[in-house]
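Model it.
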Amino acid sequence: MDIVYSVLPPQFLSQVLVGLSRTTILFIVASGLSLILGVLRIPNVAHGSLYMIGAFVSYSIAKLFGGGPSSYWWALLITPFVIALISFVVERGVFQFLYEREHLMLLLLTFAFSLVFGDLVKLIWGVEYKSVPVPGAFQGFVPLFGGIPFPLYNLFLLCVGPVVALILWFIVNKTKIGKISRAAAVDREMVGAVGINVSWVFATVFVIGCLLAGLGGVLVAPTVSVTLGMDHTLIIEAFLIVIIGGLGNIWGALLGALIFGLSQSLGILLWPKFGIVIPYLAVVVVLLIKPTGLLKSTW
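Modeled.
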């Protein structure tokens, strides 16, 4: 460990961990977007709005259960399924009738939903900043890299990311719905011809993808101020991650999130005034080297 300290300063190593915890949120949201875009061919701009709603719903659920540190676990358990229910109603009520339409129409429709969701958030929760308590088990800091304090909750996020990645990989590659979804993405007519209800396959994929957006919202809520408009930057970042990672590729989404999260974190450390530009420059470099994405598209 002393050798590591002599090569890399503690602040650098600590900032890497901060970037990795940010990567977890980016990956979870981007992987859901990648699933929807890969299977349904819908550029779901409203995905970021569901992430924002997830953060606000987690605030309400935590408040409902007393608002203390233990209330967060109820929010973490319930919120993703609330977002899944909202997405199911939207998919069955609107999207299932429009899958054959042009991508531009679908893009405009999801943009319209993002505006509607934003107004609903304003009506229900107002424009004031909200805060969600950090769970009691992860309050405080742990000394790392020569005594630099690092939030325990961020360590929790570092553990969540790989777990979600493995679960998604298992669903996509080892389950029946995952294999059918991949087949439907390639040739939906052929899948329908063998007696499979493609419409319900699409509904399942859409709900899973949106559930991940809600999960990202509830996970990020204790680390930021929950506010209207928190979805705007996130959805741009998520689309960029999907593009550089490879369409529909879960590991590509993880790799893209790592590049974006780490470059953002280290850019703030090394070049504070222009740190926000660094991840976008990293995206440009990746696309110049490999325009089709880092990993092969799975769809």
